[in-house]
Amino acid sequence: MKQESPALLAKSFLKPWYHSLEEPRRAQKSTLIKLLQGYQQTRYGAERKADEISTL
Question: What does the pLDDT read at residue 56?
Answer without folding.
Answer: 76
